[in-house]
Design a protein that fits this description.
Blueprint: E1 4-5, H1 8-16, E2 21-23, E3 30-34, H2 38-48, E4 57-59, H3 66-69, H4 75-84, E5 89-94, H5 101-104, E6 109-113, H6 118-126, E7 131-132, H7 147-154, E8 161-162, E9 174-179, E10 182-187, H8 193-200, E11 204-205, E12 229-232, H9 235-241, E13 247-251, E14 261-266, H10 273-288, E15 294-298, H11 305-317
Helix pairs in contact: 1-6, 10-11
The structure holds threonylcarbamoyladenylate and magnesium ion.
């Protein structure tokens, strides 16, 4: 029997009972549990096989709720919250004592966001507690953008996926931390650098582990298909280089004619980086299910969400 359901009341009952429920957001599906339930939070780490040093994002119902979980809000954080919440922005701020250490991996900051999905907003408004929710995939695998992706990963581990359709954005939230009250991007994501800078001025990006050892979880290899995947500037050349193999191609916008390709996926026929971002994980899930020898993924223009897609492709193709 399928674990996919639209029944919000059932999700509420399970979450009240220390169980996990996968929830839809505009970015990717999350594996959610009550932040105050040790049983639920341990189950999140176990189910995902996620190391305990990697902290979780706390999902809250509205801006007013922020003061219940963080002890200090810099002016620029307030501006960003007012502009982009609900939405694909996560902010890392000093935590209040009520936030359990297991959520933050012992750090004195907590990552918070208000997701922009009607089903999950209704769920959060009904519950008496916020939800911790990492992406609903096993550690290092591709994040899920449909209820069916989550079911395929976790049908034997959890009781319910709350169905909210396909995720509109399709890439995780952008994570912003603060140093001396100035915003710093820890993870590129569904909110663009350009959109953030339009509100708070110039922002630095410390998106790589070596730039920011304080952002655990920024592992080089991440979001990876099981099929060997390489990043390409020149698809035709890379197809020649892998002659004789079963090749899948993830093209940005062009139709590529070659008998050597077993499967071709185009992320956006009109060359729209936003559309490409929203199709990325879905396409990687599809290609990964075909048992190919190699996936050749084309690098996108380095603007707007193209930057975030390139970041994910680099992690998907990294060897370590
Ligand atoms: O779009 C999203 O953000 C999705 C949906 C479900 O909301 N969630 C998500 O969670 O991507 P997860 O756990 O896959 O990624 C959370 C990232 C990790 O890289 C973690 O290290 C970082 O947030 N993080 C969490 N708390 C932090 C903190 N206090 N300081 C620095 N980084 C933190
Ligand atoms: Mg994740």
């Amino acid at each position: 029997m399928s674990i996919i359901s639209k029944d919000i009341a059932k999700a509420v009952a399970l979450l009240n009972n220390n169980e996990l429920v996968a929830i839809p957001t505009e970015t990717v599906y999350g594996l959610a549990g009550n932040i105050y339930s040790e049983t639920a939070i341990k189950a999140i780490f176990n189910t995902k096989q996620r190391p305990l040093f990697n902290p979780l994002i706390v999902h809250i119902p509205n801006i007013e709720y922020l003061e219940n979980v963080v002890s200090y809000i810099p002016e620029k954080a307030r501006l960003l919250a007012e502009q982009f919440w609900p939405g694909p922005l996560t902010m890392v701020l000093p935590k209040k004592d009520v936030i359990p250490d297991i959520i933050t991996a012992g750090k004195d900051t907590v990552a918070v966001r208000i997701p922009n999905h009607p089903v999950t907003l209704e769920l959060l408004k009904t519950l008496d507690f916020p939800l911790a929710a990492p992406s609903a995939n096993p550690f290092n695998r591709i994040s899920p953008t449909t209820a069916q992706h989550v079911e395929a990963y976790f049908k034997n581990n959890i009781k319910m996926v709350l169905d909210g359709g396909s995720c509109r954005k399709g890439i995780e939230s952008t994570i912003v931390g603060f140093e001396n009250n100035e915003p710093i991007i820890y993870r590129l994501g569904s909110l663009t650098l350009e959109d953030i800078e339009a509100i708070v001025g110039s922002v630095s990006v410390k998106n790589k582990k070596e730039q920011n050892p304080n952002a655990p979880g920024m592992l080089l290899k991440h979001y990876a298909p099981r099929t060997k995947t390489i990043l390409s500037n020149d698809i035709s050349q890379d197809i020649k280089n892998h002659k004789g193999k079963r090749i899948g191609v993830l093209s940005f916008k062009s139709k590529i004619k070659s008998d050597a390709i077993s499967s071709l996926t185009i992320l956006s026929k009109t060359g729209d980086v936003n559309e490409a971002a929203s199709n990325l994980y879905y396409s990687l899930h599809q290609l990964d299910s075909l048992h190919l020898d190699i996936i050749i993924a084309e690098i996108l223009p380095d603007i707007g969400l193209g930057k975030s897609v390139n970041d994910r492709l680099q992690r998907a193709t990294s060897l370590k």
